[in-house]
Amino acid sequence: MKFSRPNDIPAVVQRALAEDIGTGDLTAGLIDAETHARGQVISRETAVVCGSPWFDEVFRQLDERIHIEWHAQDGDPVSVNQILCRLEGSARGLLSGERTALNFLQTLSGTATSARRFVDAIKGTRATILDTRKTVPGLRSAQKYAVRCGGASNHRMGLYDGILIKENHIMTAGGIGAAITAARRQKIEVAVEVEVENLQQLQEALTAGADILLLDNFDLGGLREAVRITAGRAKLEASGGIDLAQLRAVAETGVDYISVGALTKHLQAVDLSMRFEVETNPVSNRH
User: Most-buried pick from 143, 225, 227, 248 (CB within 10 A)?
Assistant: First the structure.
């Protein structure tokens, strides 16, 4: 399956290369410029692959002649010792890009793998797993892409494409009803979501016409009661430190969404390895 790629990949990769290589790779400079090499990336654990567009872009920016052949696509499950891709080209380019390319691939595969675990845990329920804005600065679009590769769905990308009225908004606006009225007055074609902390606030938000209610730190009994009271008048999103141990029970209360900040915040990179060998009979300009 192909997933829609962010349009900021070249700029993100450029910044990553700049912080790693700076004014030049001093160690790669020890290698003869004409030396060619082959390499391969191997997974050291079971995972879901994600990050190939960033990986490819690293080497494209360093040397367009480097050729990469993928044996696993973004979103694919992989096993221990499985080859993800093979590379060949300038040894200098491969060495200079190795760490940056693997950083992207390991990090985004970690996010996709985590998302897949959460999605698998609620199969057969009506709930959808959502991410949050708790992402690594500068990697928002990349991690949101990784979440999709893992089978989960995206909440709003940022503050500009959705309205989520939270505790501090409610306080400064003068109440739930006032905040929702102000949101409707803007006549923006997005859903109006309100965070509620108890059933009384839920009733207020329903009366004021909220589209989605974020149920913040509700226990299982509270979630079930919220589903009963709402009766389909608004979508319900459970949130608040929900981990894999709790997840299935939360999904079975009947909520529509479960948002999980840990998908992008609690990063555990996938263990990948890249190994090179020098070509004895290099062929230039391979594509």
Answer: 143
For residue 279, pLDDT beyond 70: no
216 flagged as catalytic: yes
Choice among 74, 195, 204, 237 that is catalytic: 195
Is 99 a catalytic site residue? yes
Q: Which of 15, 44, 64, 99 is catalytic?
A: 99
Q: Which residue of the set 38, 166, 224, 235 is catalytic? A: 166
Q: Mind listing the pLDDT tens digit for each residue in 191-208? A: 999 999 999 999 999 999
What are the Cα distances from residue 30, in Å, to 24, 184, 187? 12, 63, 61
Active-site residue, 5 included: no
In the set 134, 140, 224, 265, the catalytic residue is 134
Q: Active-site residue 195, yes or no? A: yes
Q: Is 187 a catalytic residue?
A: no
Bridge partners for 257 per DSSP:
128, 237
Q: What pTM does this model have?
A: 0.93
- Which range has the worst mean pLDDT, 103-117, 175-189, 197-211, 250-264? 175-189
Helix runs in 137-279, H state only: 140-149, 167-173, 176-185, 199-208, 220-230, 244-251, 262-265
Average per-residue pLDDT for the chain? 95
Q: What is the pLDDT of residue 188?
A: 85
Backbone angles phi, psi at 76, to 5 degrees: -80, 140
